[in-house]
Amino acid sequence: MARPINAGGLALIRQFEGCRLAAYQDERGVWSIGYGHTRGVSQGQQITQEQAEQLFAQDVEMKSAAVDTATFDVPTTDNQYAALCSLAFNIGTGNFAQSTTLRLHRAGNYQDAGDALLMWDEITIDGVRQKDAGLLQRRQAERALYLTPDTVS
């Protein structure tokens, strides 16, 4: 079982993912439901709030396991961990594993790692990379959480 994400991190993910009980296509055209769940989602699908919470818990566990594996051997505060989990939730664990943010975090360059979160403010639509105001807002919130001191675990 992965290290738990603190309340601030879970609230941040919920806020920026939002919750929809009917399947929808995100900006990239990917079918999603609940709090940004994508696996096995199809047009017309509907779920209950309870199912959305179950999918959210599963998705959080999967993403946090990847972050835990990538950071277990370096000092990581609860807020840093939560912000990194939010990033992985949004960009995927593969992108997270290759990110400058993770590389800088692992090197102990925490200010630079926090700033590097802001690099993930673009979306690709129809093959064209473009800035996205919503992603920038999310990255700024993640950066603020990442740089907020708490205890090292």
Shape: globular
- Proportion of beta-strand residues: 5-15%
Number of strands: 4
Biggest β-sheet: strands ordered side by side in the sheet: 1-2
Instruction: Estimate the helix proportion, in percent.
Output: 40-55%
Describe, in plain words, how this protein is organized in 3D.
By secondary structure, the chain is mainly alpha-helical. Helix content is 53%, strand content 12%. It is built from 7 helices and 4 strands, in the order αββαααααββα. It has helices at residues 7-17, 49-71, 78-91, 93-97, 100-106, 110-116, 133-146, and strands at 20-25, 31-34, 122-125, 128-131. Strand 1 and strand 2 (31-34) form a beta hairpin. Helix 1 packs parallel to helix 3. The longest helix has 23 residues, at 49-71. The model has no long low-confidence stretch (mean pLDDT 94).
Topology:
Elements: H1 7-17, E1 20-25, E2 31-34, H2 49-71, H3 78-91, H4 93-97, H5 100-106, H6 110-116, E3 122-125, E4 128-131, H7 133-146
Antiparallel strand pairs: 1-2, 3-4
